[in-house]
Amino acid sequence: MYFLKSALSALLLLCVFQNNSFAQSTVQDSLEKKKQEASLSKWYEKLSLRGYSQFRYNRLLETNPKLKCDQCDKSIGEGQGFGFRRARLVFSGQVHPKLFVYLQYDYSSDVSSSSRNFLQVRDAYFDYSFDKKQEYRVRFGQSKVPFGYENMQSSSNRLPMDRADALNSAAPNEREFGVFFMYTPQKIRENHQKWANATHKGNGDYGAFTLGLYNGQTTNRPELNDNLHSLARLTYPIFVKGQVIEPSLQGYTGLFTIPKENLSAGVKTNQNQTYLDQRAAGSINVYPRPFGLLAEYNLGKSPGFNPATDSIEVRDLKGGFITLSYRTELYNGSTLFPFVRYQSYDGAKKHEADARMYQVREVEFGAEWSVFKNLEITLSYVISARKYQDFKTDYDEKGRFLRIQVQANY
Question: In terms of CB atoms within 10 Å, which of 173, 253, 327, 360 comes out highest?
Answer without folding.
Answer: 360
